[in-house]
Specification:
By secondary structure, the protein is α/β, with parallel strands linked by helices. The protein has 26 helices and twelve strands. The strands form two sheets. Strands 1, 2, 3, 4, 5 and 6 form a six-stranded mixed β-sheet that branches. A hairpin with a 2-residue loop joins strand 2 (58-60) and strand 3. Helix 11 (295-327) packs antiparallel against helix 12 (341-354), helix 19 packs across helix 25 and helix 23 runs antiparallel to helix 25. The longest helix has 40 residues, at 424-463. The radius of gyration is 28 Å and the shape is flat.
């Protein structure tokens, strides 16, 4: 599909007078509307702004590609505008954006949407194309530049045909794999940068993209066999064991964009140590040029892999428990006069099943992150033993890392086994050895001290009262607002969930109160200080109240991203105070998620106290931020008002 099938003279705005991100979006939306592309302008603008709220579409290199897929679009289209002066678009590289492409796709146009993004991302990597677009004088000139760049774009399918044999190839042959967290812009920008540079160097190249629409241009076994080297430019996990014995260069996806020539030269360097697949990788064996991570970052990555996979169980189990409490505090107990058979089954599903699996799943996915599938069995068993051995989350985390690194050691020690036994490794040797050794070490070595530490921590929490428990609430509440979903927030939430599974609800109470406050505080601030917010910003008042009430802290992220120096300290103060007040007044929320719904369902007797703590904390944050916030500029106000007309 050609880009100019979607970009037409009617959707080109040329030079923009916009001075802010919002006014850029407004101008491009209006251009699409005037071209007859939109059936509901307001709905499309809301979809664009919602996408920007998730993460900026300023992809760097002076480019921004705002996009949305919504029923308000009659047919897929692309709008274009430019600003020689540049606009602060909160781009990923922190630089002003000069070229703006807005993609509008109908709800059923997913593939059109992704193909357009992929093509644009690649074409715009060419410096000459960007310069030409910035100096273009007419829509026809813009279309001519895009058409010419589209014609000249590398065709990896045509250029990447594998050589017949290694020795017969008339030119060097290199492979690439690109992937980024969203699987859209940077994935394809890195692909095109590598292909263009390879063409300049006379190097035959094929690049596999791991994009949001799946893997495209997949590397074949013949490709890998004939290649001199492989470049893996990725910020997410991609399958690399298939490159065993090859010269592999592993780097972040941004390096594929910024230094393609250096990477291709490294891939052609025959003196580099060959890559060893996990199956055969031993201690001291190199795996090509790989970006080093600190020990702390490596541990955090593995831990977060476990946490992200356990959270669905935490949330589902917690909500079901909250529903049970609506039937009565003891409705799940057959011996109670409040007994309800349906409530008992919900309790069995939520508390006795989902919650019981939290620690084994945490352990299993920590192990999987370290050593992939072979470590999962030992991780699950280790997590179950942590449960039965009373070592809780501490034991579960130990079990996950123990199972993962132990399995890696077993794989290294068995790599010299006869080839005839290779098929027995994943089905017999790895699970038997890793499960047995992990189990014995958990029972005899790690569970006793971990259980002691776990009990010490719980006894300490249970003994807290007065000023001490308020200090706990202050710290946990503030941590929930530092990064609103980042490492500090996750650390506080994991600790609170761990305590809840052991019967202490104080930490999760402070965490939930602290996490509910930022969106509510921002909504209140917009009500208290209307003149300091644009009309567009004030349009998020109701959504922020709803998200705050539902314990969705992420509703505050767009504001924190746009003004972190003022927003984050303001929110931390209010969230910390709210957490302290809630624990000081005796609040005790018995579920790990659900906001106001679980407050009413699990701690109705303290519901007023908890709501008071939330409102006081939110009001404090709202006032502090309202005082600190600067007034919007005239351009920002005008852009906001025109968006609502």
């Amino acid at each position: 599909m050609r880009i100019t099938e979607l970009l037409t003279r009617e959707t080109i705005a040329m030079d923009l007078d916009a001075t802010s991100k919002e006014s850029v979006i407004d101008a491009l939306v209006d251009q699409l509307d005037h071209a007859g592309i939109l059936s509901d302008v307001k709905a499309f603008k809301e979809a664009i702004m919602a996408r920007e709220g998730q993460s900026t579409t300023g992809i760097g290199e002076g480019i921004a590609i705002p996009h949305a897929k919504v029923d308000a679009v009659k047919k897929p289209a692309i709008a274009f505008g430019k600003s020689k002066a540049g606009v602060d678009y909160q781009s990923l590289d922190g630089q002003p954006a000069h070229l703006f492409f807005m993609i509008a796709a109908p709800e059923g146009g997913a593939q059109t949407h992704l193909d357009a993004l992929a093509k644009l991302s690649g074409v715009l990597m060419d410096d000459d194309v960007r310069k030409a677009l910035l100096h273009a004088q007419t829509p026809d000139e813009v279309l001519s530049i895009i058409d010419r760049a589209d014609d000249e774009a590398p065709d990896e399918e045509a250029e990447a045909a594998p050589a017949e044999t290694k020795n017969e190839s008339p030119e060097p042959y290199v492979l690439g794999v690109t992937a980024c967290p969203t699987g859209i812009a940077h994935t394809y920008m890195a692909k095109d940068a590598l292909l263009k540079q390879a063409k300049k160097m006379g190097v035959k190249m094929k690049v596999e993209t791991n994009g949001s629409s799946g893997i495209k241009n997949r590397l074949t076994s013949e490709d890998i066999e004939n290649a001199q080297g492989v470049i893996v430019a990725a910020d997410v996990h991609v399958e690399t064991d298939r490159f065993d014995g090859k010269n592999v260069v592993e780097v972040p996806v941004a390096d594929g964009i910024k230094r393609p020539e250096e990477l291709i030269n490294l891939a052609l360097d025959t003196e580099r140590t060959p890559f060893k697949a996990r199956e055969g990788r031993g201690k001291g064996q190199a795996s090509g040029k790989q970006e080093k991570q600190s020990v702390g970052k490596t541990i955090y990555k593995h831990l977060m892999n476990g946490v992200s996979n356990m959270l669905p169980l935490v949330i589902a189990g917690g909500i079901l428990m909250a529903i049970v409490f609506l039937f009565g505090p003891n409705s799940f107990d057959p011996k109670s006069s409040e007994y309800n058979a349906f409530a008992e089954q919900l309790w069995n599903i939520g508390k006795n099943s989902a919650f019981y699996l939290i620690i084994p799943i945490l352990s299993a996915f920590i192990a999987r992150s370290i050593t992939e599938k072979p470590g999962m069995a030992a991780g699950l068993v280790g997590g179950m033993l942590a449960m039965s051995g009373d070592s809780g989350f501490i034991g579960g985390i130990i079990a996950g890392f123990l199972a993962g690194y132990l399995t890696e050691g077993i794989k290294a020690m068995t790599r010299r086994m006869p080839q005839s036994l290779e098929g027995l490794k994943p089905t017999l040797i790895y699970p038997i050895l890793s499960v047995t050794i992990t189990g014995l070490l958990m029972v005899y070595v790690f569970n006793p001290p971990a259980a002691w530490v776990n009990h010490l921590l719980l006894n300490g929490l249970n003994s807290l009262s007065g000023a001490n428990i308020m200090l706990l609430g202050l710290v946990i509440g503030a941590m929930m607002a530092i990064d609103m979903g980042g490492p500090f927030n996750k650390a506080a939430y994991v600790f609170a969930t761990a305590a809840l599974t052991e019967g202490n609800a104080a930490p999760i109470t402070a965490a939930m109160v602290g996490g509910m406050i930022p969106p509510i505080a921002l909504a209140l601030s917009m009500l208290f200080f209307k003149r300091k917010f644009t009309r567009t910003q004030r349009g998020s008042i109701v959504p922020n109240f709803v998200m705050g009430a539902s314990f969705i802290t992420e509703g505050a992220i767009p504001f924190a991203a746009a003004d972190p120096i003022r927003v984050i300290p303001s929110m931390m103060i209010g969230s910390g105070i709210g957490g302290a007040i809630a624990l000081g007044l005796g609040s005790s929320i018995g579920a790990p998620h659900g906001g106001i719904f679980v407050i009413l369902g699990t701690d109705f007797s303290h519901a007023l106290q908890t709501i008071l703590a939330i409102l006081v904390g939110a009001a404090i944050s709202a006032v502090i931020y309202g005082i600190l916030k600067r007034k919007p500029t005239a351009d920002e106000i005008a852009a906001s008002e025109s968006m609502d007309e």
